[in-house]
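Memo to structure team: turn this sequence into structure tokens by end of day. - J.P.
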Amino acid sequence: MRIDIITCLPRLLESPFGDSILKRAQDKGLVAVHVHDLREYSTNKHRTTDDYAFGGGAGMVMMIEPIDRCIQALTSARAYDDIIYMSPDGERLSQSIANQLSLKKNLILLCGHYKGVDERVREHLITREISIGDYVLSGGELAAAVVADAVIRLLPGVLNDETSALSDSFQDGLIAPPVYTRPSEYKGWKVPDVLLSGHQAKIEEWKQEQSIKRTKERRPNL
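Reply from structure team:
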């Protein structure tokens, strides 16, 4: 898989892709993440990518020209399955969406900033809009990192135990059950006996019961 991220603040994305699972996935050649500095596509001598909004109002708006130039440069080199704009009013990111995107080959993630992008970008250049929640961030970089993380960890070979992703919360519409590790007793707090029983069928039954219980208590909307 290849993920291209378009941003006017590329340094914000150095850390998320420079450590842990996402770095190992790139080192293994399972995914290629390319961050593109939008300022390099500006025709302005000051490398600006934003301007005042027509009609007035507070805040600046990301200009269409550098975004279009960047997208055209990318799409002229390869076909993309989706060009995604990270937007607070896009469809809400879910495990189902992450699963769908993990099956794609090439993705572009466009990070908004300031008061957002010129509406013509949304009308003519992108194919999908995704939000990570009903709140506003300073920019779309963190949201893009969240989407990339949710997708990349699903790729075959990324996790050491490939069954791990299948047992994550939300994969089956339920929250994951509680988990424990050593020691089996700490300060009088004990691990449930069933988990120490070695009876796998009973353990799986307990996990399913706990998932249903937690989902009802914490996320009844599911």
